[in-house]
Amino acid sequence: MRTRKPLTVLAAAAIAAAAWTAPVQAQAPEGIAEFATAGAGLAVTAPAELETVPSLVPEREDFAFLGAPGDLVWVAGSADGTAYPTLDASAVDGDLTLGLDKVEGPGDAWLYTFTGPGLAEPLASTADDSTFTLPGGTTAMVVLAVDEPGEYRIELGAREADRGHGALAPRSQAAAATATAVYSLTAEAATTEEAATIDTDTGTEAGGAQTATSCEVVADGHVDIGPRFVDGEWTVQLRDDRAAESQWRELEDTVLHIPDTALFPIPEGDFGFLGEPGDEIHMLPQVQASGIVWPGWNTQDPSVIEGVPGAVDWSLEAVDGPGAFTLFLTGTFGGADVLFNSAEPLPQTIAVPQNTHAHGNWTFSEPGVYRLTIAFTGTTGDGTTVTDTADLQVAVGDATDPNAACSGDGSGGGSGGNDDEDDNGFLPTTGTGWLLWGLGAAALAVVAGAVIMFATRKRRNATAAGTPGDADGN
């Protein structure tokens, strides 16, 4: 008999997103399984083959379900290097119950995710027939791993709950409300030494993104803003995770473009700081929405983890734009925790804990070009204060030309970080992009930013004598 586990982190994320309606005309995100309601039934789109990379089980208690520290496991991504390890139920009306079955193969398979503080949490396994619940309308970041070399055929089965009452569909409807995806994968025999070499030498390891040197307009996909040491200099950059191999970009050579599909009505309740209920604003939500860019922030680069033992201060110094900018977290029960608000005196500062990756709601009250002047400040192990300031460039609205926001000439560059070694990096090197670089607060932690930021000490530097960050940035 299967044991069923509710995926509470995803449920919390679903509640957090409930105050907002998903934008229309959005493209479906790539992943290892995309589910959709098809009439009275359930459809699934998934790659037929998965490629694997040998990895070593980290020396952490939360990974004990995979084996002892140092044991070999094989982590899977898509064979074509384009599908991210996500389970996408954004087009499903009801909750899904999912489980794994082994059709053939020498070992067992595990599907796992990460909870708020970045701890690995097993969801389903062929070893114990466990299942879990994926709330309808959500997308979950997951990892699929096997524990023995050889040929596998792994079946992912999904069953949709009753759309009206949240219970499993009646037996008479079960056939129409179920869907399966079967993956073929080969785990090539490897030694622990070879796996360790992959962990340290490939460009897709934790923090191992290459640096781009061209002005780029980012309109969808995942990006993060954060500090790193580049040739020994503390530098604020943007990590672009849209491709299989991530790239570090200079902020002056990058523009985030927010289309009108990201227009949302301001909800009732604790959102008066955004404007009047019902008025529309452009928003990049805390939970990923396909078809629009999903920006986050992090302190996960290995050079930062190794060089700065404590929290990093992130400051909003000024805002230049036609309207107001806010960044806030949606709480588990729908409230708002405002991190930055340009209508209030600037600068404003929050403390981001070490090895953090988080997301929030980014809002812009008017279309046009915005420049958000931000600074990241840290203290190294020897007590030296390091800081860097840069402008995040944003073009808001379909009518706004992204090129008008870009101040760079594409000449900015930096180191790829391939020489950095990170023991936390434990995800595949094919088709996993931004998930490759660290488990400190990865995967589901990014959609549960409120949980992460409970540990964040907000420090507002503005005083009563300060002036609001208006359109002139003063």
From TrEMBL:
Residues 1-26 form the signal peptide. The chain crosses the membrane at residues 434-455. InterPro entries: CHP03773_ABC_transptr-like, Surface-anchored_actinobac. It comes from the Bacteria. Residues 399-426 are annotated as: Disordered. The keyword Methyltransferase does not apply. Keywords: Membrane, Signal, Transmembrane, Transmembrane helix. This is Cell wall anchor protein.
